[in-house]
Amino acid sequence: MSSNSPTRNGSRCSPSCILTIFGATGDLTRRKLLPAIYDLAAQDLLPDAFAVVGFGRRPQDETEFRSGLGEGIKEFARLEWNEQKWNWLCERIFYQQGAYGDAEAHATLEERLNGIAEQFGVAGNRLYYLSTPPEEFAPIIENLGIVRKAHKNDAWRRVIVEKPFGQDLGSAQKLNALLGRYFSESEVFRIDHYLGKETVQNILTLRFGNLLWEPLWNNHYIDHVQIVVSEKVDVGKRAGYYETSGALRDMVVNHMFQVMSLVCMEPPVSLAADDIRDEKLKALRAIKSLDAKGIAQNTLRGQYTGYREAEGVAPDSKTETFVALKLEVDNWRWAGVPIYLRHGKALEERVSEVVIRWKDTPSVLFNDGPEKLKSNMLVMRIQPHDGFALRMNAKVPGGNEIRDVRMNFDYSETFGAEPPEAYERLLHDALIGDSTLFTRRDESETAWAIVDPILEAWQNGPAPFEYTPSSWGPPEGDEFMARDGRRWHKPIGKEGGE
Ligand code: BG6
């Protein structure tokens, strides 16, 4: 476990560090963070000079804290349970109770961290993970700023901030300004777990690792783009949080905009974090802003029947659980190409995908049959059935019939092994200081600037359209597309849909 050399799969072992998780008794730590840390440990990607300290408001016995995390690992880790690996990790897990805004509690934490650092031979490196409710971010950051002053100069301090990163542009700017007071931008890791998904990263590889697409990836050939993230689950026990958030804040401004910018960005000059993020930012900045009329025509929200009965939800709640947007990246490559985004909870299926729909093939040769030729289409399946499918037309053997066929790539069939979990990749990247897959300050603020006017208009607008749970959203969502003479892509398993 102690090697500092690259491991078999070419990944780098992390440098020595203590990871402190604020909000450690929460679900995220048990379901995602510690299983990801275990998976890293199991691949020898953590050094012996490593420890995890959970910080939370609740009093918690350290032994129970460890065993609770052990159970979480058994249930949620990607890799098999290994007693030896767990023992290695278990003795490096600690718990510290305290209030997030209490300076004394932070001073005690710092002392504890120093003691643990000495015990395991960790240099001064510290990674802090903010996994608390967002109102606790500011007091924690202020206190981290205070303890930082006493910190050794040759070691690094980094902070990972969970979503929601702000509620609107103003609050995101405020949070960024506060972070900027104590941390440089290269030390701030705004997490967006969609960027940790292999299939999202593969958008870049698919686009820029193949010559084929580039000449066709523009408004000369593309008719429209659809980005869909539909979930089967409803808001469940998270209604209290969701009521203050809604679909636009919860999924669109972050995850879906990140996917959109990867689909629409120009080729970066290198794969360096800032070269990639510069291009993503440019794509976001090119989104055409919507005035009141534009918002009325190009945005639509829905709410599933029964949402208002959930605990913590107002009986007249206007919070949207479904959203459809039509946006335009107004630059030379994309001007005139609609980018449709659709997301909702309690929908028919759990599917995340990007659909690139090319224009119709010129109707000179093969369009004289009863069926019109289907246009070419690329479906990038983010989840499930990770992979992509390309729709083309082929001649059916015998006769003259032409039928659409699929070229299909499936991750698990081709590569066998299960890909790393998003949090595994992202935690490792933060440990080695690679911020490529994290949202930069200007990206987060630009994204909020796009949705702010929509949120404002919705606040004063009519109630969302109602829809039946387990449907594809309100019927008005279909009309939204029909107005443009189009329809939502219907995913059908691995084959990439109709
Ligand atoms: C989270 C949202 O960021 O992403 C949740 O807060 C949502 O509401 C989740 O369910 C979806 O993530 P995934 O990886 O299951 O698509």
Rg is 24 Å
What is the highest CATH level, the class of the largest domain?
A: Alpha Beta
Count of individual domains:
2
CATH architecture of the largest domain: 2-Layer Sandwich
The set of bound ligands, ions and cofactors reads: 6-O-phosphono-beta-D-glucopyranose
Strand order within the widest beta sheet: 14-13-12-11-7-10-9-8-15
Amount of beta strand: 15-25%
Please give the number of β-strands: 15
What proportion of the residues is helical, as a percent range? 25-40%
Distance between the termini: 48 Å
CATH topology annotation of the largest domain = Dihydrodipicolinate Reductase, domain 2
Q: Count of helices?
A: 15
User: Unreliable stretches, pLDDT < 50, 5 or more residues?
Assistant: 1-9
